[in-house]
Amino acid sequence: MRLRSALLAAAAATAMATCAHATTLTFDDVTPFTAIANGYGGLDWSNFYVEDAPDEGPGTGYVNGVQSGANMTFNRFAADAAITDPNGTFTFNDAYFAGAVNDGVSLTITGKDQGVTLFTQTITIDTTAATHFVANWTGVDELDFHSAGGTLHPGVSGNGAEFAMDNFTFNAAATLNPPGDFAPPGVPEPASWALMIAGFGLAGATLRRRRMLAA
Q1: Is residue 75 domain-shared with residue 144, that is, in the same domain?
Q2: Is pLDDT of 131 > 90?
Q3: 163-172 and 90-99 beta bridge pairing
Q4: Which of the chain's termini has less CB crowding within 10 Å, N or C?
Q5: Higher pLDDT, 149 or 182
Q6: Which helix (H) or strand (E) holds 89?
Q7: CATH number of the domain that 137 lies in?
C-alpha cells in the first residue's frame, strides 16, 4: 500500500512539473510605440500598445507601473482592449496594473470562454504604484479590459483613463491531439527528471524497508 502511494506521489509530482508552464510577458522584447502583434506569447491582442516608460516622464503610471525592464503595455486612448487565445483556453494568473495618468481609475477585467462570462472583477488603480492583481482564472479564451473614470494626477497629462500593464503571467492549456493522431512524447525538463528520480528512489526505499520487515 505504501509502495503504491509512493509511486502515485512521484507520478503526481512529475505531472505537475511537466504541465505547469507559466509564461510571464514583460513586453521588453516588443518595439516601443507599436501595437502588440497577434501571436505575441501565442495570444492575440486588441488595442494594446507598447511604450518605453521613461519616455513618458516621472509621476506617471507608465513609469511607476513598470515591474521589469523599461517597457509596459497600455490601452491606447483609454479604449477597450482584449487578449484572446486562438488555440484554446488558458489560465490568467496575474498581472500588474497602474493608472497611466489618472488616479482612481476603475479597471474592469472580464474572463470569458466562447463568449460566456466566467469571471469579472473591478479594481481601482492609481499612477503612484502598480496594483498586483492575482486572478488564477482557469479555462478562459478571452480577457476583456475596460477602464474609466479617475482624476488627472497633478503635474502630468495624457489620455484620461488609460491603464498601464506589465508582467502578464498566464498558463497555456495543454493541447490534446485528435483521436488517431500520434504525437511523440516530449523530453522531460531537468526539474521533471529530478522529481522522477526522487520518486523512484522513495519507492525503492519503501520496497527495501518492507522486505526487511518481512524478513
Answers
A1: yes
A2: yes
A3: antiparallel
A4: C
A5: 149
A6: none
A7: 2.60.120.1350
Express each pLDDT in 26-46 by its tens digit. 999 999 999 999 999 999 999
Hey, which bits of the chain come out as E strands?
22-25, 34-35, 44-46, 48-52, 71-75, 81-84, 90-99, 102-103, 105-113, 116-125, 131-140, 142-148, 151-152, 163-172
Please indicate, yes or no, if residue 80 is contained in any of the structural domains. Answer: yes
Reply yes or no on whether the pLDDT at 184 is more than 70: no
DSSP assignment of 169-207 equals EEEEPPPPPPTT---PPPPPPHHHHHHHHHHHHHHHHHH
Is the pLDDT confidence value at 60 over 80? yes
Give the dihedral sign, CA 189/190/195/198: positive
Evaluate if residue 167 carries a pLDDT over 80: yes
| Residue 185: per-residue pLDDT | 38
The residue type found at 120 is T
Cell of 168: 502578464
Nearest one of 146, 185, 169 to 46, comparing CA atoms: 146
How far is it, in rounded angstroms, from Cα 74 to Cα 65?
Answer: 11
Same domain, 194 and 94: no
